[in-house]
């Protein structure tokens, strides 16, 4: 930016930022409202009569009527929706039939496990995906590029739950390199007081390194399998961002000036794709939360996805819809915020 | 790339049909159309992977159509004497926990796979096309409202939403199809809208409007046909994802119910025996993988031929 830009220019920029942020906030609010509307509708089309479920089918008519009014089901639909929104903003997602806890308590209990798995999976995708994408762009059309293409095609075609099962079969059943399903061996379970709920952090904080090692061994396989998709996505996007940069003139200039090829690729070009890459990583993180439903089921990983499927199978609607709202909210938040981050940080998009 | 003339000389057998198709001065509209289709095919078949993809899809359709003829055993006939038998000449892919032949079940399962993807495409593509073209052509507040709704659906996590829908509607293959279709249409609406906006003010549209064509006729007769090619590419590429979602729902027990030979549900039932009788869970997964790979390869090839924007580089 030019040094001469005065305070008035600064002020107008801040004002523009502010306007963009408020537009973003409106989008987030609207999308979230849409999510709540959909879950509300889903809750209403369930073939189970909520009154009958509460009072049993032998209750007299007046009891039935009283409970119906207590549950607010005599109100017009739009009022019911308002009541529903009000409850959710108070953090009331109802009670789970399966665990008899408040759904919010349940979710708070299982969420750290999902967070741990999704973070490990993203790390896997980032640490392997970015170098792979860079190499594919540098050697466009040659074998690193072909490998990337195969990795991508495989990632978009393979059912992740099947890959998980085959991973367990090979590395646990046959080779015995990996421990079985779950977050810890049974021997270690319950030894640790949950502080953050993330076992890797908790055990490190407590200095219980044998638990840490065990948890690490347990997370490698599910994280690699869950992270495979983000590996495919991140590497492909890195490749196309890098190709775009490498064709630009400043790269030629740098080469002409005698900057080493290593610095040109890893410092100049990769440095310039940092911002779009952050967006891509954030997006793939959001997708992982969703992908964790199947992976967690395969690996008996006691996170949100596992909780969701267990509740689904026992038709525990409050838990299902609560889980949907939480995953949906996180997903929407990550999607829209990464978009906003990109717009705020990329000077060309300002 | 060789030009058509040197190409035909190199092969040294330019049949008359080929010459008729390649004619630069077609005598009829039909000849011109067929000629164009032939050129498109030539371009498509240059991409060997795309041809493999097409082969996989054709095989899938044939397997579904001729399932009772191809499958060596009936798909649901239990034979407890041969429970969990390994792969052999009698049972190429082994048998499952009820002694049913896995190969036969996979062959019959291709019908369910085809049923799911065809229905999802039939439901979601026209919905997306309609919303997108109407929003793009009419514009204004209608565009804003429709696109807002599309964006909201686009921002949802698909699998989770499908799970919630299925849990409300009850498990079953029809409900799984509805749930997937509900989450599948928004990208199509986006594509159709983008295409519509670029051609909305084209001269041929203005000409048609001057001749008195109403909005319905303009959208269906002039806008929709031009959106179709990019939509077909996108739907084909999405097929792989739809197959994976449907299989995922089946695996979770929310899609097709037993004893239907749905591939995802087969993996789920094979899971219990996985460490000892691995083929029960492994083989249906291979089928899912091959078919979605086929759609991905085919979609890539179609994109090169049909989508003019990604063409030429």
Features:
heterodimer, A: 350 residues, mainly alpha, 14 helices, B: 313 residues, flat
Indicate the structural class of chain B: mainly alpha
Low-confidence stretches of chain A: none
Rounded to the nearest angstrom, the distance between the terminal CA atoms of chain B is 13 Å
Count every beta strand of chain B, where a strand is a DSSP E run of 2 or more residues.
0
Distance between the termini of chain A: 12 Å
Biggest pleated sheet of chain A: none
Give helix and strand order of chain A, one letter per element, not per position.
HHHHHHHHHHHHHH
Q: How would you sum up the global shape of chain B?
A: flat
CA-based shape of chain A: globular
Q: Please state the oligomeric state of the protein chains shown.
A: heterodimer
H/I helix tally of chain B: 14
Mean pLDDT of chain A: 82
Number of continuous helical runs of chain A: 14
Instruction: Estimate what percentage of residues of chain A fall within beta strands.
Output: under 5%
The helical percent of chain B reads over 70%
List the uncertain runs of chain B.
1-10
The string of secondary-structure elements of chain B, in order, is HHHHHHHHHHHHHH
State the major sheet of chain B: none
Q: Which protein chains make the most extensive interface, counting residues with beta carbons within 8 Å of the other chain's beta carbons?
A: A-B, 51 and 45 residues
């Amino acid at each position: 930016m030019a040094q001469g830009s005065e305070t008035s220019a600064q002020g107008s920029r801040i004002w523009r930022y502010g306007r963009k942020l408020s537009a973003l906030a409106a989008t987030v609010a609207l999308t979230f409202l849409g999510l709540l509307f959909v879950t509300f509708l889903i809750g209403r089309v369930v073939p189970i009569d909520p009154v009958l479920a509460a009072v049993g089918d032998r209750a007299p008519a007046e009891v039935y009527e009283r409970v119906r009014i207590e549950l607010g089901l005599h109100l017009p639909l739009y009022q019911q929706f308002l009541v529903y929104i009000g409850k959710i903003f108070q953090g009331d997602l109802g009670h789970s039939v399966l665990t008899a806890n408040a759904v919010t308590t349940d979710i708070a209990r299982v969420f750290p496990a999902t967070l741990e798995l999704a973070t490990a999976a993203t790390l896997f995708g980032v640490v392997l995906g970015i170098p792979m994408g860079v190499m594919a762009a540098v050697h466009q059309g040659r074998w690193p590029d072909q490998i990337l293409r195969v990795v991508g095609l495989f990632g978009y075609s393979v059912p992740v739950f099947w890959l998980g099962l085959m991973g367990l079969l090979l590395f646990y059943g046959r080779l015995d390199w990996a421990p079985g399903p779950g977050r810890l061996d049974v021997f270690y379970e319950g030894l640790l007081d949950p502080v953050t709920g993330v076992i890797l952090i908790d055990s490190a904080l407590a200095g219980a390194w044998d638990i840490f090692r065990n948890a690490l061994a347990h997370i490698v396989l599910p994280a690699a399998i869950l992270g495979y998709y983000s590996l495919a996505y991140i590497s492909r996007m890195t490749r196309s961002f890098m190709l775009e940069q490498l064709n630009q003139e400043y790269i030629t200039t740098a080469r002409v000036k005698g900057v080493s090829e290593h610095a040109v690729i890893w410092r100049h070009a990769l440095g310039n794709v940092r911002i779009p890459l952050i967006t891509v990583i954030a997006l793939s993180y959001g997708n992982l939360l969703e992908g964790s439903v199947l992976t967690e089921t395969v690996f008996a990983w006691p996170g949100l996805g596992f909780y969701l499927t267990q509740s689904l199978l026992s038709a525990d609607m409050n838990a299902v819809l609560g889980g949907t709202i939480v995953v949906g909210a996180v997903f929407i938040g990550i999607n829209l915020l990464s978009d906003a981050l990109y717009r705020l940080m990329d000077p060309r998009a300002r | 790339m060789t030009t058509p003339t040197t190409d035909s000389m190199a092969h040294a057998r330019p049949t008359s049909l080929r010459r008729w198709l390649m004619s630069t001065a077609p005598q009829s509209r039909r000849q011109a159309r067929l000629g164009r289709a032939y050129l498109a095919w030539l371009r498509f078949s240059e991409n060997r992977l795309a041809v493999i993809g097409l082969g996989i899809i054709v095989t899938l359709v044939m397997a579904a159509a001729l399932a009772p003829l191809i499958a060596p055993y009936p798909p649901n006939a239990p034979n407890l004497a041969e429970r969990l038998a390994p792969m052999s000449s009698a049972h190429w892919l082994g048998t499952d926990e009820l002694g049913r032949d896995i190969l036969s079940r996979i062959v019959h399962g291709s019908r369910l796979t085809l049923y799911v993807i065809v229905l999802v495409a039939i439901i979601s593509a026209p919905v997306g096309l309609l919303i997108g073209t109407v929003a793009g052509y009419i514009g204004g507040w209608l565009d804003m409202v429709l696109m807002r709704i599309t964006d909201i659906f686009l921002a949802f996590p698909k699998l989770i939403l499908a799970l919630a829908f299925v849990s409300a509607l009850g498990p079953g293959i029809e409900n799984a199809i509805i749930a997937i279709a509900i989450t599948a249409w928004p990208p199509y609406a986006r594509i159709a809208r983008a295409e519509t906006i670029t051609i909305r003010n084209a001269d041929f549209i203005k000409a048609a409007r001057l001749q008195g064509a109403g909005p319905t006729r303009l959208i269906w007769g002039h806008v929709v046909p031009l959106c179709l090619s990019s939509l077909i590419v996108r739907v084909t590429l999405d097929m792989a994802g739809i197959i994976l979602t449907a299989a995922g729902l089946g695996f979770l027990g929310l899609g097709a119910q037993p004893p239907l030979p749905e591939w995802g549900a087969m993996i789920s039932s094979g899971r219990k025996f996985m460490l000892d009788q691995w083929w029960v869970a492994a083989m249906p997964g291979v089928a899912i993988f091959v078919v979605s790979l086929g759609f991905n390869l085919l979609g890539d090839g179609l994109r090169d031929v049909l989508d003019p924007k990604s063409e030429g580089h």
